[in-house]
Amino acid sequence: MKPRQRAWVFLVAMGGLAAFYLWGLTGLPGFGNYPGPYGDIINRIAVGQTNATGVVSAVNFEYRGFDTVGEEFILFVAAAGVATVLRHLRGEREHAARDEAVGRDVPPTSEAVRMTALILTGPTVVMGWYLASHAQTSPSGGFQGGVVLATAFVLVYLSGRYLAFERISPVDITDAVEAVGAGSFAAIGLSAVGLGLAYLTNFLPLGTVPGAVSSSGTIALISFFVGVEVGAAFILIVSELLEQTLLIRQGSQ
Amino acid sequence: MQVFPFIVVAWILGVGLYGIVTSRHLVHQIICLIIVQSSTYVLLLGVGYVTGAVAPYFFDIPEHTPAVDPVVQALALTDVVVEAAVTALLLAFAVQAHKRFGTLDPQELVQLKG
Description:
- The structure holds two protein chains of two kinds.
- Chain A is mainly alpha-helical.
- In chain A, 65% of the residues lie in helices and 0% in strands.
- In chain A, helix 4 (65-85) runs parallel beside helix 9 and helix 5 (111-132) runs antiparallel to helix 6.
- The radius of gyration of chain A is 23 Å and the shape is globular.
- Chain B is mainly alpha-helical.
- Chain B has one domain: Helix Hairpins (Orthogonal Bundle).
- Chain B contains four helices and no strands.
- In chain B, helix 1 (4-22) packs antiparallel against helix 2 (26-48) and helix 2 packs antiparallel against helix 3 (70-101).
- Chain B is elongated and about 60 Å long.
- Chain B starts with a helix and ends with a helix.
- Chains A and B meet through helix 1, helix 2, helix 3, helix 4 and helix 9 of A and helix 1, helix 2 and helix 3 of B.
């Protein structure tokens, strides 16, 4: 298709989309006039039911827990997919381990970047665990914590070289950690079934004080394992993409 | 009726789609897709917003304070995770496409397929 034709098809399609969007807008309540009832009901009952003061986490890991299992496995499958798409193809060999862009050398990492990354690594790990273990109390949770945790590993890559990154996150171990994280979520759900309850029922003691770190039963536990899974998944994805810089590209210039 | 947030949604969606259609580089195209998806965050959060309400976290405020809808916020979180997964996969495909065809221009990739 020529760019001109493409532009026309795009314009016509955008016209249709705009019409549908405007039509949809007329049926929406105005901004700020949320009609409910689901959000209002959950806001009213969630703290009393789960002892979790973070209602978004309560929704994610309790009321909508079954959805979140699926969501977590989307990420799990994506990490596996990246590993599959970027597997060693026939004719690809590994270089010496150094960063490389096609046709030009990469300038050495500046001391400023190295130092900043080094200083930030420790606090980033602490921040990641803090987020992953406080889903029940404040705006955080396993997904956010896991990503921050993976960032710490990327900082190691920035501060040192690829080899250090590879040494602290060997693919086999990261794979296993990811599987444990994802499997534990599913296993917590199955434990409830083993106790004669519905899948993912919150069967652990809820604690007595809403907002305590030890409260909210399975919400806190699931969030922690989600953090483990998400962190490992992102480390895997990043290391798979970085590994590509080491491969000889065959059949291209 | 306050519609400004929904105009922002339409703008982000339109800009992203325009970028996808006119893109000459796969990585640029993937970023445009991320932008398209960002419009859904604004839409979700806009739908659940309650004027004058607080975030649905009752750690240091009394229970039953009017709060915005937590369900759409949880959905936005799901949205972000799925976007990250999709982006990672697409970037991997871009790497392989470059290896295989030696170009990252989507329009040339179509021509190579013949």
